[in-house]
Design a protein that fits this description.
The protein has three helices and 30 strands.
Amino acid sequence: MKRIWTNTGALALSVAMAASAAAQTTYICRAGQDSKTAQCREQVGAKALSCSFEKGAAWLISPEKTDAAGWIAVKAGDQALSCRKQELAVQAAAVPQLMPAASLAALQGDGLKDALNGMTLAMASPAVFFDGGAAGRGTPTASAAAGALTLAAANCTPGVDCPEEKPRSKPQARPKCTPGVDCPEDQPQAKPKPKPQPKCTPGVDCPEDTRKPKPRCTPGVDCPGDGKEEGGSGQTPLPPNYRPRPSEPPRHFPPYGDAPYDDDRVDVAGYWRQSRDFLGSPVRSAGSWSQTTGSASLRRGGSETDLKQGAAYTARLQSQAQRNVYALHWRYVGRDCHPDYRDQCLSWEIQYRWFYDGVQNGTASFLDVEVEFQDGQKLLPWEKESFELLYDGSRITLRQTDPAFRYQVRGPMVDQQNGRAAFTLTQGARLLRAPEASKVSLTLVNNGGLKLVIDDSRTEFYDGETLEVEVTVKYKRKWYQKDAVVSQGVMPVLVRSGANRSTFNVSASQGSGTYYIDSWRFRRAGSKISSDSWIRKGGGNSATY
């Protein structure tokens, strides 16, 4: 028993049918709600055919009217239609009736029921289908008068919310080939599915095929030949709209505004060009006025120097007003330039700058200055001292750059009417400077034994003071041995005027060989005319014992 649901407009019908033979062909007919035609579909397993007829017309299928070509006659009212079927053998078919009961009786009178091989045809009016049925939903009831089986109306819409009936026979296995591609010729040729449209544009936003080697150059740009050969830079050249630096001045110069000032003098530097006005004269600008500083140096020295220890010195100082003059220059400046060729850019602009072009002098003023020294002590023969006078047009200054004494300065005493000024310096305490490095020497000699000889050339000036000499004496061993220290320490010498030489014995503990002064230094300890800072002398001579 197989249940078939049929939907024709607002009618729903279930037909019970039985087949006496193994081969069975089922016809399912549907009519759309708004359609004027209905379709009849033949279903045999996965095979199906369809035919069309007028909506609402009664129709019957007569399996006995199958001709030799495989066509099945379909009667729909007064019209005769036919549908093509796949199998010629049709044992039984159940034909639902969509006409009222009166019309159905007329068809039965023609002997159509007997021609269907004893199949039971269920007939009922629409009122019977949609009254719910006396026996309940989906339960067939028997009609004793007609001897026919009547089915109750279904409370669902077939194909929408009605459950599908499972087929009795097992579904045929799906073919293991692609119809129309690799199936044998006896298989039906299925219409190939259309290829899906690509989701990207090849060559634009599609991912590159990694199986293909990437080109090392851009075809048609930097690839040799037709672009198939390897080689090239692999870089697309920059756009060809770069412009070289213009060689001629522009027709109209933009305003220079607040151009920067540069104190370097530029005549021709790079691409700078001098700006000129409409008369052809250079465009210049002057800075602010400033006063130059007039200066003079006064130097004094002892008897052993080439200077004198004078009592009074005079100098004329000049101070003048000056300002810098700048000339305006311009040049082309590129924007978005070529990375390899800076003289080729997408656009060129004008840049201005003021470069130093000279000095403009103003009014000068003069001042005569006299410096008087009131000395209580003379400078040492090797001593020098210096002073500097500065005049900026309004003020006069005396600066002690390297004095030998602490001077007390009085002044300046300025006579503006006559343009004169005076300073008076009075000596104070002596400033202790470092002693002369060249006036003390140390020598290692072998004179009946190893001895260190100290010579002091300034004993008359340091009489009664102490000279300290620190020395390290070493014995020279073989090249792969470390030299041995034989004497190290400070040797104090009491300085006496006229006694310029002092001698100290050195132990020759290493026996015969070469001894040498590794390093030494000296200082005037507690001196009244020199500082007590150490004077480094480095290494000394050697002696053989």
